[in-house]
């Protein structure tokens, strides 16, 4: 999953996934020439071979993995500035598609219809980035929608160190906060040392900000191996550390909730340790993990983003040289026999 793409298309770094109200899966990848070995990977694009060429950056699939639509990218004369480096995707209940970016000048978020028709820009492209700005953002990593409140949460981001909230209908700025509910301070020391208390500001990148059905907001502070929980007004609730010896790019890359009304489980993508953790949301304890490093199906190279559909299936994307989406089928509730890095294939099928 998915089925092969048409037109000799291939994916680049795949850095966002979401599932809409119809159980269609939307993925965003980086399709610029710099993401590929030009001669070896995109020879058709380079004019030297029969295969291949980058697919459009926004890909829409059905549950069976059929490509339904593909669109996006910079267009000369367009009324918008496409992100220099695509990052994060969210589909609103009405089908609007929100897209972030973490390239140099990406201080904005774009909104399109599900078919790629431009709707609006949120923020000011190319503006100076400041965690206390109310007009521009700082390389937004991820976007999440709370439809009940008509609000959109930005994990803001790769330069800024905060959660920002805007109006769903208009994109108007509403509020923001930093780690522990503090006012963000871009000059603060954010050194992270495993085994010691984490920094009082987000270390960053602030890589997810996901509202739950029961009025909480879960924030991934990737570089500090932690998830902080808040109320929607920014009131701090609690902090939870995962794989705390992880340095480099950190362990908390993205989360998704199980689709039951209570959202009993959290699925945590760990792109540095190449695995997915299943977390009990009430206790925030890890129940088990699956996956390991590798290129075979069910293994990972930098799992970056994660989403679930209404049936409980899990979708993951892989960045860097992973360059793919994978689907994991929900198998129902079963006893846990392997607590860490459980196999993703039944033994009789290996």
**Main β-sheet: number of strands, strand sense, barrel status?**
4 strands, antiparallel
* Number of helices in the DSSP assignment: 2
CATH class equals Mainly Beta
Whole-number total of structural domains? 1
Low-confidence stretches: none
Question: What is the topology, as strand order, of the major beta sheet?
Answer: 2-3-5-6
CATH arch. level architecture: 6 Propeller
Task: Give the structure's gist in a few sentences.
This protein has 350 residues and is mainly beta.
Describe the structure.
This protein is globular. It is 2% helix and 37% strand. A 4-stranded antiparallel β-sheet has the order 2-3-5-6, with no helix packed on it. Strands 7-8-9-10 form a 4-stranded antiparallel β-sheet, with no helix packed on it. The chain has a single domain (9-349), classed as Neuraminidase, CATH 2.120.10. The chain has helices spanning 38-41, 43-46, and strands at 9-10, 14-19, 25-29, 53-54, 58-61, 67-71, 86-91, 97-101, 108-112, 118-123, 142-146, 151-156, 162-167, 173-177, 206-211, 217-221, 226-230, 236-241, 254-257, 265-270, 275-280, 285-290, 303-308, 314-318, 324-328. It has 2 helices and 25 strands. The model has no long low-confidence stretch (mean pLDDT 97). By secondary structure, it is an all-beta fold.
């Amino acid at each position: 999953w998915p089925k092969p793409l048409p037109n000799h298309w291939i994916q680049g770094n795949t850095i966002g996934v979401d599932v809409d109200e119809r159980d269609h899966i939307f993925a965003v990848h980086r399709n610029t020439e710099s993401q590929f070995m030009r001669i070896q990977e995109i020879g058709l694009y380079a004019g030297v071979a029969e295969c291949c060429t980058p697919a459009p950056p926004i890909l829409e699939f059905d549950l069976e993995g059929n490509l339904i639509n593909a669109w996006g990218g910079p267009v000369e004369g367009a009324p918008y500035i496409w992100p220099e480096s695509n990052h994060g995707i969210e589909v609103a209940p009405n089908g609007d598609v929100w897209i972030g970016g973490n390239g140099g000048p990406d201080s904005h978020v774009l909104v399109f219809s599900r078919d790629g028709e431009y709707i609006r820009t949120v923020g000011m492209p190319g503006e100076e980035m400041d965690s206390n700005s109310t007009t521009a953002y700082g390389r937004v990593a991820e976007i999440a929608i709370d439809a009940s409140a008509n609000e959109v949460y930005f994990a803001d981001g790769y330069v800024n160190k905060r959660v920002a909230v805007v109006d769903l209908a208009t994109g108007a700025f509403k509020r923001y906060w930093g780690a522990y509910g503090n006012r963000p301070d871009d000059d603060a020391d954010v050194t992270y040392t495993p085994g010691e208390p984490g920094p009082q500001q987000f270390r960053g990148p602030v890589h997810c900000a996901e509202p739950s059905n029961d009025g909480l907001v879960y924030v991934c502070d990737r570089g500090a191996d932690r998830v902080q929980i808040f109320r929607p007004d920014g009131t701090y609730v609690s902090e939870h550390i995962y794989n705390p010896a992880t340095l480099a790019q950190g362990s908390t890359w993205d989360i998704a909730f199980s689709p039951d009304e209570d959202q009993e489980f959290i699925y945590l993508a760990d792109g540095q340790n190449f695995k997915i953790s299943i977390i009990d949301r009430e206790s925030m304890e890890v129940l088990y993990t699956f996956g390991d490093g590798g290129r075979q199906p069910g293994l990972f190279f930098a799992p970056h983003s994660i989403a679930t559909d209404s049936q409980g299936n899990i979708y993951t994307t892989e960045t860097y040289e992973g360059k793919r989406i994978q689907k994991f089928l929900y198998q129902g509730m079963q006893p846990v026999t392997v607590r860490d890095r459980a196999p993703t294939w039944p033994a009789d099928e290996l």
